[in-house]
Amino acid sequence: MRLTDVIRRPLITEKTSILREDGRTIVFQVAPHANKTQIKRAVEQLLGTKVESIRTNIAHGKIKRQGRYAGRRSDWKKAYVKLREGQKMPEFLEGA
């Protein structure tokens, strides 16, 4: 799996903005089959920062209805990445 396949996109929500205020925690949507070592390697190489810890979470897809037809969104995985003390937050997340 390539590094760009592991990290899908950063998650910018109200909750992740509060976590980001400490200057050390970033939240990403990642590939469902990626493990913590792959996520750590991808973040360190793509963003140029050192990672202290990673917590992962499976977000289950919601059931959505269109009239009488019910469908289901697919499950996805997110990773809470905590940077080491003194590491700088990447620029693309500072202005958001």
The span between the termini is 29 Å
Mean pLDDT: 88
**What structural class do you assign from the helix and strand content?**
alpha+beta
Strand order of the largest sheet: 1-2-6-3
Major sheet details: 4 strands, antiparallel
Q: What is the percent of helical residues?
A: 25-40%
How would you describe what is shown here?
With 96 residues, the protein is of the alpha+beta class. The protein has helices at 3-6, 14-20, 36-47, 91-94, and strands spanning 7-10, 25-30, 51-59, 63-66, 69-72, 76-83. Strands 1-2-6-3 form a 4-stranded antiparallel β-sheet, with helices on both faces. Strand 4 and strand 5 (69-72) form a beta hairpin. It is elongated and about 55 Å long.
